[in-house]
Amino acid sequence: MAAAAAARRGRADLEIVALEKGAFTSYSACGIPYLVSGAVEDPEALVARSPQEHRDRSLIDVRTRHEVMAIDLDAHRIDVRDHEHERTYQLGFDLLHIATGAKPIRPPLPGIDSPFVHGVQTLDDGVRLANDAASAALSQVVVVGGGYIGLELAEAFKQRGLKVTVIERDDEVMPSLDPEMGSLVGGAMQDIGIDVMCDCSAAAFEPPASGRGSGEVVLSSGQRLRADLVVLGLGVEPNAGLASDAGVATGVRGGVEVNRRQQTSVDGVYAAGDCCTSFHLVTGEQVYVALGTVANRQGRVAGINLGGGYATFPGVLGTAVARVCSVEIGRTGLTEAEAARAGFEVDTASIESTTRAGYFPGAKPIAVKLVADRNSQRLLGAQIVGRGAGSAKRIDVIAVAITAGMTAAELLDADLGYAPPFGPLWDPVQVAARKLAGANR
Amino acid sequence: MAAAAAARRGRADLEIVALEKGAFTSYSACGIPYLVSGAVEDPEALVARSPQEHRDRSLIDVRTRHEVMAIDLDAHRIDVRDHEHERTYQLGFDLLHIATGAKPIRPPLPGIDSPFVHGVQTLDDGVRLANDAASAALSQVVVVGGGYIGLELAEAFKQRGLKVTVIERDDEVMPSLDPEMGSLVGGAMQDIGIDVMCDCSAAAFEPPASGRGSGEVVLSSGQRLRADLVVLGLGVEPNAGLASDAGVATGVRGGVEVNRRQQTSVDGVYAAGDCCTSFHLVTGEQVYVALGTVANRQGRVAGINLGGGYATFPGVLGTAVARVCSVEIGRTGLTEAEAARAGFEVDTASIESTTRAGYFPGAKPIAVKLVADRNSQRLLGAQIVGRGAGSAKRIDVIAVAITAGMTAAELLDADLGYAPPFGPLWDPVQVAARKLAGANR
User: Fold this and answer.
1) B7 and B16 Cβ atoms separated by less than 8 Å
2) Does A275 qualify as catalytic in the annotation?
3) List of chain A residues whose C-beta atoms are within 8 Å of the C-beta of residue B314
4) Residue A286 phi, psi (nearest 5)
5) Rounded to 5 degrees, what angle do the CA atoms A274, A278, A282 make?
6) Phi/psi zone of residue B69: left (φ > 0), alpha (ψ -120 to 50 degrees), beta?
7) Which residues have CB under 8 Å from B67's CB, separation 6+?
8) d(CA A30, nearest CA chain B) in Å
9) Closest by alpha carbon to A277, among A302, A299, A258, A296?
10) Phi, psi (deg, nearest 5) at residue B190
11) Dist. CA B256–CA A50, nearest whole Å
């Protein structure tokens, strides 16, 4: 819908049809955990713009519950299934934009399709899960996967007063962080009262016997965990089958390949969001990053180009932030492990500081890790784990510094704001930069 | 003390004597409002390192209650008054570092030296003010001057449950912001229950008759405000008399002139902090900026050079943040007015957004203003006023962007972090950047 709206701003005369399999448009998928926790009560609150608003304001012919079944690139035609009226029809196009998003990874394990195992991707999924979460019969939830979504959903169920266990295949939760930073997150989650089991994967799911009572998650170790409800947080993969079946080229992780203008391998066909790949700003390599910010920006770029304008997508750093109860997490650029895989030799600095001046009420510990190229000293990435407010979004400062090609010494020289409620005199980010710069001067 | 400690790290063999008129070293002057409010109870909590710690850890011969009365640059000698033992002595030096700080501006108005009129600069001042603030006899406080210090102290007294009036000579509080942003701060302060009177200056102070009861502040308009206690928040000026009397060159606002290494006009004499001037990163001009971050950084640079190393101070953007009750304020670089004075023609963009996703509980309004050079589109400055947590420190993102010479379009392209507890999908900073970039594309 970001693309459709941008295309409309570019060209008033385009006929724009938007086909959506579900019932909602332009909603915040990132808000689903807060629907599940009850912090947000009405699913409609997550909808930034309804189908009718798109029709009225942007003259976009939005058709919900309409699913595209196939694309014929030679004939410039798509097959559409109207689930509402149970009919199928064909639609021609001059320009096509593919924004089919991602789908939760569901490994082929026994019982994974039972109704008590939930994947969470669409708002429809979120509404179902929120309804289940509010059910009085629930007491024990198992979250499979300790990434962002897994941990945010763990918090949501914790907020509901339920017993929550997170199982994570890797050594530490948050595999998008280096292990020692993930360990800080895991420790903080334990302190909050969420059970975290690492080095641990699910082998099978046994649903409640009669649809009532508790089911079980069977671990690879043979151990069994009682579970009234299971949520999959194993990450997502591109929902790009429609595009690839039609002959559009795909790349990393099966995502639709696009150039800087979000053009696919096929003339007149664009793609954006979780169904396609991106360029990484640091490595220059093609990557698959499924994030709302990236999707929305790519959509806007595609839409400007679809509308006859000129826009390019600048690439990603994979900047992400999350809050799990009082724990805040931020990351940008490359982890130490990712940098090594990309061929960099790195210097790193890890520091502990506080979110406010040490003497200020409510000051909490914050850990910052910086990763820089050993030769050029250019910053490559950063990770933040804090125990209180004001931690995660400090990552943005480093994201801009990386974008600008700054070294740790240059970040150290930046004139950042200070007052006791916001941090120590030397911002934690700059304490880390000072340590990293000092290691080489 | 930052300079002394850095010099020690550089050279183990230096004999380092530090002379301090007051009783404390290395304290957070920015923490004084929180001492006054009672949020911080023990003045010692504001002391990062005591004289004894400096002696023990850095082998610095710290002499408190010792005041330097005169500097003889030819003889390489200073006159020192030991207030503790009421004696005067002379001390020779090879290298001299001047860090005499700032003093509150006290216009020569009738009654300004009465004991009920407080200036706040040193921790000793802070302790006196905190004691007075805790006195049960107090009910009405007048703060003269609506800048950072004035507003932070207004909050402090408000927290004590007192009636607080702020009087400000300019049209709006926070004259370091453009008027329409200052107006947002003024409005928010009114909502909090702090009286704000703009276009209003004090003409005289009439102390309580017998040292008991209320005094009065007489305004230029003739109006009288009852006041049990008056605090001056009219800003500070360099405390550079000692240096200039000795023949050290001074510049803007009378501050000690220094080069990039914090060297003064006299060989072997350094200066840092609120007593000296700085370079502005955007205009390249000499400016006077009295901020703890700048002072500490300059001290570190001076100390490295004093210790035989090489360091330069990169210049300032005047980045500053403040919290007044729930209102957060941030600014960096040039305001629209400052840019005009520096000769820039500018494009600006002002937007309103929210501190969290709009649907997320606790989302509060945040206003962001960006200022850019009309020709190069480079960002020159920014201002933020928010009604809730997470507002002010967003200024750091823009400070780094300005340091890197970014345009609004480049800031818009940066990959910032997003999750509903931290902001809308498009960060308010980027909503402003988009508006500014859009105006020119």
Assistant:
1) yes
2) no
3) 413, 415
4) -75, 135
5) 135
6) alpha
7) B19, B21, B80, B81, B83
8) 7
9) A258
10) -60, -45
11) 61
Mean pLDDT of A208-219: 85
Calculate helix-pair angle for A2-10, A292-306, nearest 10 degrees.
30
The residue-averaged pLDDT of B360-368 equals 96
pLDDT tens readout for residues B229-266: 999 999 999 999 999 999 999 999 999 999 999 999 99
| Among A296, A400, A421, beta carbon nearest to B401 | A400
Q: Quickly state the pLDDT bin for A135 (edges 50, 70, 90).
A: confident
Instruction: Say if residues B415 and A294 touch (Cβ distance below 8 Å).
Output: yes
Task: Say how far apart CA B301 and CA B314 lie, in whole Å.
Answer: 10
The strand pair at B87-92 and B77-82 is best described as: antiparallel
Long-range contacts at A210-215 (CB < 8 A, ≥ 24 apart): A211/A115, A212/A137, A214/A140, A215/A114, A215/A116
Determine, for residues B422 and A45 on separate chains, whether the beta-carbon distance falls below 8 Å.
no
For residues B371 and B348, give the distance between their C-alpha atoms in angstroms, rounded to a whole number.
5
Distance (Å) from the alpha carbon of B202 to chain A's nearest alpha carbon:
28
Tell whether the model's pLDDT for residue B440 goes beyond 50.
no
Is the pLDDT at A62 greater than 90? The verdict is: yes
Average pLDDT, chain A: 95
Look up residue A26 and give its two tokens: 């332009």
Please, what's the b/e burial string for B105-135 (b: 16 or more CB within 10 A of its CB; e: otherwise)?
eeeebebbeeebbbbbbbbebbbebbebbee
pLDDT of A213 over the 80 cut: no
Number of Cα atoms under 13 Å in the Cβ half of residue A182: 22
Contact call for residues B76 and B172 (beta carbons, < 8 A): no
Mean pLDDT confidence for A284-308: 96
Q: Report pLDDT digits (tens) over A81-90.
A: 999 999 999 9
- The pLDDT value given to residue A314: 94
Contact A428, A366 (CB under 8 A): yes
pLDDT at A134: 84
Give the model's pLDDT for residue A441.
Answer: 46
B139: exposed, middle or buried (C-beta count within 10 Å: 0-12, 13-18, 19+)? middle
| Contact across the interface for B415 and A293, Cβ inside 8 Å | yes
Indicate the burial class of B432 (C-beta count within 10 angstroms; 0-12, 13-18, 19 or more). buried
Asked if A102 and A237 count as a contact pair (C-beta separation under 8 A), the reply is yes
Using CB atoms, pick whichever of A296, A394, A417 lies closest to residue B319: A417
CA–CA distance, B329 with A354 (Å, rounded to integer): 21
Q: Could you tell me the pTM of the whole model?
A: 0.95
Which residues have a Cβ under 8 Å from the Cβ of B284 and sit 6 or more positions away? none
Q: What's the start-to-end Cα distance of chain B, in Å?
A: 50
Q: Is A417 within 8 Å of B40 when comparing Cβ atoms?
A: no
